[in-house]
Amino acid sequence: MKRHLISAADLSRDDAVLILDTAEELARLADRPIKKLPTLRGRTVVNLFFEDSTRTRISFEAAAKRLSADVINFSAKGSSVSKGESLKDTALTLEAMGADAVVIRHHASGAPHRLATSGWINGAVVNAGDGTHEHPTQALLDAFTVRRHLSPEASGVGQDLAGRRITIVGDVLHSRVARSNVHLLSTLGAEVTLVAPPTLVPFGVESWPCEVSYDLDAVVGKSDAVMMLRVQRERMNAAFFPTEREYARRYGLDGDRMARMPEHAIVMHPGPMNRGMEITADVADSDRCTAVEQVANGVSIRMAVLYLLLGGNESAVAARPEESK
After folding, report:
1. By its UniProt entry, which Pfam families does this protein fall under (predicted)?
2. 135 tagged catalytic
3. Segment 301-308 mean pLDDT
């Protein structure tokens, strides 16, 4: 792996499979009485969040603590950032405190890349979501979830997603999750199709390694996994569709559409959900929806990323670090 994780496009197939296999091994910790390893003892991980977050921030914190790292949670609200402090000065402060890794979420696309290439800090930088650009660890946990369901033999260790058909539906224009998933899933061999209203399809999407459709009903019946995206009203500065009811009718996943999916197919959502808009309550609460499972898998994936960036480039399967006493 490279020194930082900024974009899913930076990961080769071997890199991605190594992370997934390492996460598979680390996921077994959940079944142990003591869920901690001493792997990153003495290391400091800083969660640097300039945007609100629940799942991602808590997931990274849990991952670091389960690897015995020291964790510092930094929120822009209530910090010197609210007084006008720049990203550079914040980074220099973290460097002075001895941060070994900085997990950053920022409203500006490119902020993690700037942090990683500026020389302001010497530690590893992990992108936890930047603007509408990317969210690589979300894509990794999504791929991990798909592989567990569609390659159940030994949870697919060593395998990619060759030939699997993944459909991503909704607000692609504002979705960093969609961008990262397209890159990663295609790297792993999956066939990705984006489904969205024409107004919510990004400019230049024809260069992405995926297909584009405007008809959900035409593709839902041949999908191995359907990933519903949240409609991001907070990023919209114009009317991108007539009404919420019209959007739900054409691009929402309800019980009738789910019934037309193959029996083995799963429904995914990165959260938080707009129930009744992109997904109905009966689908969200069904056994086929993996939204809650994705949250749990996120801890394992982020443990794997931190382990590989800070602990070494060997798989945890080979290293088999012993349980902390």
Report:
1. OTCace, OTCace_N
2. yes
3. 97
| pLDDT of 159 | 86
* Distance between CA atoms of residues 224 and 100, nearest Å: 39
* 22 touches 300 (CB < 8 A): no
- Does the global pTM surpass 0.85? yes
Residues of the binding site: 55-56, 83, 105, 135, 138, 176, 230, 271-272
- Of 239, 256, 228, give the one whose Cα is nearest residue 171: 228
Burial of 317 (0-12, 13-18, 19+ CB in 10 A): middle
Percent helix, strand, coil in the chain (nearest 5)? 45, 15, 40
Look up 55 and say whether it is catalytic: yes
How far apart CA 71 and CA 214 sit, in angstroms, is 44
76-85: average pLDDT: 66
The pLDDT tens digits for 148-184 are: 998 766 567 778 999 999 999 999 998 999 999 999 9
CATH 3.40.50.1370 is the classification of domain 8-131+295-319 = yes
Within 13 Å of residue 100, how many CA atoms lie on the same side as its CB?
A: 16
Q: Write out the binding residues for L-aspartate.
A: 83, 176, 230
Give the CATH number of domain 136-293; options: 1.25.40.10, 3.40.250.10, 3.40.50.1370, 3.40.50.1220: 3.40.50.1370
